[in-house]
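Lab notebook, design round three. We kept the backbone fixed and only want residue identities now. Task for the bench partner: fill in a sequence for the structure below.
Input structure tokens:
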């Protein structure tokens, strides 16, 4: 099994490759062609479902919903021309900061 980084890189490459392709042939292409607001709405829905599963301690459901969240996040990032590298840089910039300090500088 590959790590999460490789998995996310492969997912983003697939999402990027769907740009401009036939929306009838690909769910990803249909989301991208519908625009950023549609992509954002789907991410929000999946995030709520993941949050509910987590709050209820539904482990399998949470893992599945977390995968949906990551997929829809990849689509929204791609729709905004942002890659995982920019997200990783934000996370790396916070390494070593306490959560309280980080909140103050965000
Ligand atoms: N990871 C995913 C993934 N996760 C979820 N989904 C789709 O997300 C949709 C969400 O389902 P919902 O029940 O929330 O919504 P729905 O009512 O079916 O659809 P909406 O009208 O609400 O958008 C389903 O159709 C799922 O198939 C995904 N579709 C694609 N991928 C990845 O994207 C790749 C390319 O997919 P295509 O673009 O479809 O070729 C796939 O190989 C996967 O790796």
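Proposed sequence:
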């Amino acid at each position: 099994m590959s790590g999460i980084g490789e998995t996310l890189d492969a997912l983003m490459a697939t999402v990027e490759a769907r740009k401009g392709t036939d929306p009838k042939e690909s769910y990803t292409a249909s989301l991208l062609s519908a625009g950023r607001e549609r992509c954002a709405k789907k991410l929000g829905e999946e995030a709520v479902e993941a949050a509910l599963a987590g709050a209820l301690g539904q482990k399998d459901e949470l893992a599945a919903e977390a995968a949906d969240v990551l997929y829809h996040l990849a689509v929204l990032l791609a729709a905004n021309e942002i890659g995982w590298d920019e997200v990783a840089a934000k996370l790396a910039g916070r390494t070593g900061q306490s959560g309280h300090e980080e909140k103050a500088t965000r």
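Keep this in mind before ordering anything: DSSP finds six helices and no strands in the chain.
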